Amino acid sequence: MTADASAAAAATPGALARARRRASAARFWAAYRKQRAGVVGLIALLVIALVAIFAPLLVGSDVDNVTDAPGKALEDPSAEFPFGTDQFGRSVLGLVVYGSRISLTVGLLSAFLCVAIGTVVGIVAGHFGGWFSTVLMRVTDWFLVMPALVLAIVLATVMSRSVTTIIIAIGVTAWPTTARLVRAQTLAIEARPYIERAKALGAGHLHITTRHVLPNVMPLVLAQTTLAISTSILTEATLAFLGLGDPQVVSWGGMLQDAREAGAVSSGHWAYLVPPGLAIAAVALAFTLAGRALETVLNPKLGVAK
Amino acid sequence: MSATATATTAPATAAAKERRPGAARAYLAYLGGKLAGAAVSLFAVLVTSFFLFRIIPGDPVKSMTQGRAVSEDQLAALREQFGLDLPLWQQFTDYCTKAVTGDFGTSYQFHAPVSELIWEKVPNTLLLTGVAVVLYTMLGLWLGTRAAWRHGGLGDRLNTGVALTLWSVPGFWLGLLLIIVFSVGIGPIPGLFPTGGMEEGGKEGFAYIADVAHHMVLPVLTLVAVGYAQTLLVMRSSLLDEMGSDYLTTARAKGLRDDLVRRRHAVPNALLPTVTLIFVNLGHVAAGSILVETVFSWPGVGSLFYQALSVPDLPLVQGLFVVFAGAMILMNVLADILYPLLDPRVGR
Predict the structure, then answer these.
(1) Using one digit for the tens of pLDDT, what is the confidence trace for A40-89?
(2) Which domain holds residue A185?
(3) CB distance from A270 to chain B under 8 Å?
(4) How many Cβ pairs closer than 8 A exist between chain A and B?
(5) Lowest mean pLDDT among A72-81, B38-47, B240-249, B320-329
(6) Are B176 and A260 inside 8 Å of each other by CB?
(7) Chain B closest CA to A5's CA: distance in Å?
(8) Of all residues in chain A, what percent carry a pLDDT higher than 70?
(9) Span B61-106, pLDDT tens digits
């Protein structure tokens, strides 16, 4: 280990930086591994991601075909259909497996969108200061006060029904928390002496924000993204349940809406209702656990409190 | 006894006033700032709702008549009726002056004034979600305190784990499951509670109250199960922050029992951050009930919103959007007003 380090030290600056990054990644992993709930969440996420990627291999590629469904309407669970069938005679298991794709896609993309907006707003507001920053934070506070779900519902109502609409509706309503966190972190970083050194050496705004501030806020942003994904997945399910999703796409929230409309609730047909909801809860919980573990590892002060 | 009490407190307050002559004025300035901010926020809500519903859908008249055969003349008449043939700025000023007086136009599907439709439903929503917020706040504070006081223990881990799991569960799904289990009945369990609605009808006095309470059990249970986690987590971490404080060591050193240290010293201080959360939750009351009200067909503003969405009944959606956002702003202002009174370190 020490031999490695000294060998790296003797090498080029690039190799030195790589070795340092490797060491910090190893340190991070060692700390993360101690968070038992976080490891459980991570494993669950890997399994769910694999299921989503290999969905056609697991349950066949035409499970969402309405016209040529294999079973009768609303069958009870059997060997052929472990969770029974929906009102079109499609296998509920197959639909749940396929639903993971849209849930993860929307969750990841809208979380990415909202964290990207939040990071840019936060860094700009923290870096530039002055009246511009004040106005920006006013806007952020305003969005923070807005009921995000209602705003997302309204956006999804006035735009056309599509997956893109859902992603945008969630992304543009959920960013303010990230913006506040990133701004606070930016202010803390810019107070450090090495930023002054960079300025003295003639670094411009772009250099300071992208080369010094951004790498330092990234860990925080990563933890924030993980938590945002679980909120996004819940919001997506909610919007789909309200009938605002893309009717062409199989999603968990949409399945629950179909089940309700097909009378699965009043007839007590639980096999149709339980799996999609459990899937939503499992994915959201897995992301929450992983996000909290990340937060604990990356923020030592919080770690003491936990 | 009471005479001595007033005698000791009166000079104390006088001394406090003497020490901080500018305190009241500082608080008023703080109050003014917060109220002005709320007014600006409310105006921004009006602007947003105006442009969201008028710019994005392209032609409101087209979306209003979606799927129906209408002639050009009819379209023109509709445009005139809703004032859509006027210049945009004039529409905007009209809209603002009307909105200030509580006029949000006429609903497409109920053919009644939007504000009347909303006001009718507000008490029902306040009843349902008010009860739920009170219950889950108390539950969250109690469990959060217990979890933090014995943190790291089995009870803490179990508590936090259950809360996080319930938090990840979509509320509407939990509601549907509760209906299946407790209303429709599953296996040996008979249907204990009604599947939805607020009353059977035809009942008066105490029987009516009992009937409404009977209808409220499942929706309140759903709201509490999904909602208490946040209060629990905030209370837990804010109590954990207080736990290392010196004043707790002092309290123990003077011989107070553990229970008293917690109840009289630690919890009151840890409660401060949760006060804001309680108000924010109250602000979410209307918006948060959309799904639960829909699932349980509770006749409140939430299910009204759902009915408006499925058409879509744009004036009604717009009016409800303003109401939901206004409730949030109002509650935030209330929290801002109360907080400095509870915690003197803030707002001075």
Answers:
(1) 999 999 999 998 888 888 777 777 776 666 667 666 777 677 777 777 77
(2) 35-62+89-302
(3) yes
(4) 123
(5) A72-81
(6) yes
(7) 38
(8) 90
(9) 666 666 566 777 777 777 777 666 777 788 888 888 888 887 888 8
User: Could you give phi then psi for residue A269, rounded to 5 degrees?
Assistant: -85, 75
Find the CB nearest B186 among A158, A256, A270: A270
Alpha-carbon distance B1 to nearest alpha carbon in chain A (angstroms): 44
| Residue in B with minimal Cα distance to A276 | B173
Helix (H) or strand (E) holding A237: helix A214-241
Across the interface, whether the CB atoms of B328 and A289 are under 8 A apart is answered no
Q: What CATH number should be reported for the domain holding residue A166?
A: 1.10.3720.10
Within an 8 Å CB–CB cutoff, is residue B179 touching chain A? yes
In a domain? residue A162: yes
**Within a domain: A68:** no
- Residues of chain B positioned with their CB less than 8 A from the CB of A147: 283-284, 286-288, 324-325, 328
Domain B3-342 is in which class?
Answer: mainly alpha
Q: How far apart are CA B290 and CA B279, in angstroms?
A: 18
Rounded to the nearest angstrom, the minimum Cα separation between A150 and chain B is 6
Nearest Cα residue in chain A from B56? A158
pLDDT level of residue A294 (50, 70, 90 thresholds): confident
Taking only the tens place, the pLDDT of each residue in A85-135 is 777 777 888 888 888 988 899 999 999 999 999 999 999 999 988 888 888
- Beta-bridge partners for A85: A91
Residue of B55, B172, B173, B324 best to disrupt the A interface, most CBs of A under 10 A: B173
Cis peptide preceding B312, ω within 30 of 0: yes
Cα–Cα distance measured from residue A71 to residue A166, given in angstroms and rounded to the nearest whole number? 31
Answer whether residue A279 is part of any domain.
yes
Number of structural domains chain A divides into: 1
Cα gap A90→A69, rounded to integer Å: 5
Structural domain boundaries of chain B?
3-342
- A 111-150 → B contacts, CB under 8 A: 138, 142, 145-147, 149-150
Asked whether A216 and A133 are in contact (CB, 8 A), the reply is: no
Q: Is B217 helix (H, G, I), strand (E, B) or coil?
A: helix
Residue B186's beta-bridge partner residues? B189
The pLDDT score that the predictor gives to residue B286 is 66
Q: How distant is the Cα of A204 from the closest Cα of chain B, in angstroms?
A: 34
How high is the ipTM of this complex?
0.82
Residues of chain A found within 8 Å of residue B129, distances taken between Cβ atoms: none
Residue A52 lies in a domain: yes
Tokens of B20: 């901080």
For residues A35, A36, A40 and A41, what is the CA-based torsion angle, rounded to 10 degrees? -30
